Amino acid sequence: MRLDVLTLFPEVFTNVLEHSMLRIAKEKGLVQYHLFNIRDYADNRRCVDDRPYGGGPGMVMKPEPVFQAVEAVEAEVGMRPKKILLTPQGSRFSQSVAGMLAAEPYLMLICGHYEGFDERIRMGLDVMEISIGDYVLSGGEIPAMVVIDAVVRLIPGVLGDIDSAKNESFFEGLLEHPQYTRPAEFRGMKVPDVLMSGHHQKIKEWQKIHAIKKTAENRPDLVNKP
Ligand code: ADE
Asked: 169-223 sits in which CATH class?
C-alpha cells in the first residue's frame, strides 16, 4: 500500500511512523509513507487559510492549496488514490472501515487545521470524510495517525500471527475477553484456573462468556445492535 499524508505539519508524523508496527510494516515492504506539506503548494505568500464568508470565529482552509497539492501528487504518482478528509463532520471511523481501507492499494489522507475546510474541497475532490469520534480536535493530524495505525496493522502480512486481528476487540462485534500472563498470582489476584487447565474447549467457552460480559458492561450499545 502507498499511503500519502497531506498536512500543514508533516513533522508531527515522523516519530509515529518510525516506531512499532508502522515501522515494521514499512521495513517488510508492505507500506510506503509519503508526507507532503500543503503550504508548499500555496502560491500567494504561502497563505493556506482565510476568514469565513458570513463571519464567525477562526479561519477556514482555502481550496486552492489543497487542490494544487492533491493534483500535483496525483500527477507525480500517476495513480488515483482513495482520498480521505479527516473532519469532525465525517462518517464515524470503525474497525470495519479500517478493514475496508486496508484492501486499498493507495490512500491519501488530507488533514485540515483551523476551523475546517472550504466546502468546495469536499465538493470537488471526491473524498471520503472520516471522523474518529464525536469531539473536536485542533486538526486532522492525530485522527490521520489513528486511521493509519488501525489500517496498516490490518494489511495482510503486517501482524506476525495471521489470527492476531481475529481475537481482538470488535471482531464479531464484541470487545476482547480479559487476558492474563505470568505470574499466576499477583498481589492476591489469581489467574482464573480454567486458563491454566490446558483444556482448549473450556478456555474458548470462558473467553466467549467473558467477551460478552465485558461488552455488556462497557458497551451495551454493541450488544443491542441488530
Ligand atoms: N478534525 C478535528 N476533529 C476531528 C475528528 N474528531 N475526527 C477527524 N478529524 C478531525
From this structure: mainly alpha
Question: Cis (ω within 30 of 0) for the bond into 63?
Answer: no
The DSSP code for 117 is B
Average pLDDT, the chain: 95
Mutational test site, ligand 1, from 7, 89, 136, max ligand atoms within 8 Å of CB: 136
As a whole number of angstroms, the distance between CA 200 and CA 119 comes to: 55
DSSP characters for 144-195? Answer: HHHHHHHHHTTSTTSSSSTTGGGGSTTGGG-PPPP---S-SEETTEEPPGGG
Confidence check: pLDDT of 196 > 90: yes
Question: Which among 156, 158, 154 is positioned nearest to 171, based on CA atoms?
Answer: 154
Confidence check: pLDDT of 162 > 60: no
Distance CA 88, CA 136 (A): 6
CATH fold for domain 2-152: Alpha/beta knot (3.40.1280)
Pocket of ligand 1 (CB under 6 A): 86-88, 131-133, 135-137, 140, 143
Tell me the angle at which helices 141-152 and 20-27 cross, rounded to the nearest 10 degrees: 60
Domain ranges of the chain: 2-152, 169-223
Q: What local confidence, expressed as pLDDT, does residue 114 receive?
A: 79
What's the 131 CA to ligand 1 centre distance in angstroms? 5
Entry pTM: 0.94
- Report how far apart, in Å, the C-alpha atoms of 162 and of each of 66, 155, 159 are: 38, 10, 6
